[in-house]
Amino acid sequence: MMEPIVQYINVHKSFGDTHVLKGIDLDINPGEKIAIIGPSGSGKTTIIRLLMTLEEPTDGDIYVAGKNLWKIEKNGKKLPANEKHLASVRKDIGMVFQHFNLFPHKTILDNCAMPLIKVKKMKKNEARDMAKQMLDRVGLGDKYDAYPSNLSGGQKQRVAMARALVMRPKIMLFDEVTSALDPELVGEVLEVIRDLAENASMAMVLVTHEMDFALEIADRVLFLDEGVIAESGTADEVINKSDNPRLQNFLKRFR
Ligand code: ADP
Question: SUPFAM superfamilies attached here (predicted)?
């Protein structure tokens, strides 16, 4: 058996009185590609924000590469994570958001080189070389010196992916990365994700409304409904063959 790269163990998350995640148990294998589907408000974004350490679980544990994200485990005791611990676990995780979160006053190249310089303490030249390689990979080899405001939404999203990829994460998280894009720009972004799914060895978790895309690239699809994983299986099992009425009802919108 492979050691899972990610493990959620009975994870709960509440915001005030709103109980958003109600006991999530989930193992993700190294290299596995997972799509999370489900109605708006079901907790999809919260699941991946927890993994990115942008939110802390109310209860339960999340392990990444064997390390508890939120707790320092020592001699059978669990102590609250400090910034140093969080920084070390974050190194394995990359995330791309719906809105690109690029630095507007930096060139595309500097946007991508910066995390290597700041977090990995890499030399500037070395960082820029790596950033160039990633920008080439996402098809932006001719845009090193452009600023985010000069790019289309699809190009910005590809920069955001390159910026996450330079860190060589073991897991990449994609939160509805195409939903803020004009329809004609969706394809170029999906194409990059498809290339990564086929050729990169990292695990990927995508929150997506692109059912055909999920069918095409996901090893496993999770249907999240009111804070629980209501269905889990191959894309074909979940999207084409499940008789769960709530899932059927959700999928109607995409047919
Ligand atoms: P989804 O991604 O499936 O649409 P989310 O994970 O974004 O769902 O949100 C699930 C629920 O949690 C929603 O009801 C949302 O309003 C609530 N929620 C998410 N983040 C916060 C927050 N920071 N504060 C309060 N409520 C939140």
Answer: P-loop containing nucleoside triphosphate hydrolases (SSF52540)
Q: Per-domain residue ranges for the chain?
A: 102-168
Q: Is the pTM of this model over 0.90?
A: yes
* 44 in contact with ligand 1, CB cutoff 6 A: yes
d(CA 48, CA 64): 12
The tokens describing 233, both together, are 């299986």
Over residues 207-228, the pLDDT tens digits come to 999 888 998 999 999 999 999 9
ipTM for the predicted complex comes to: 0.96
Cα 95 to Cα 73: distance, rounded to the nearest angstrom: 25
Instruction: Choose between 119 and 35: higher pLDDT.
Output: 35
**Res 1 pLDDT > 70:** no
N residues, the chain:
255
Ligand 1 neighbour 125 (Cβ under 6 A): no
Share of the chain above pLDDT 70, in %: 100
176 vs 19: CA distance, rounded Å: 22
Hey, which bits of the chain come out as E strands? 6-15, 18-28, 33-37, 59-64, 67-68, 71-74, 77-80, 93-96, 171-175, 203-207, 220-225, 228-233
- State the SS3 of 197-224: HHHCCCEEEEECCCHHHHHHHCCEEEEE
Contact of 183 with 152, CB cutoff 8 Å: no
Give the residue, out of 42, 46, 99, 226, with the most ligand 1 atoms within 8 A of its beta carbon, to mutate for a pocket test: 46
Q: Which amino acid is at 87?
A: A
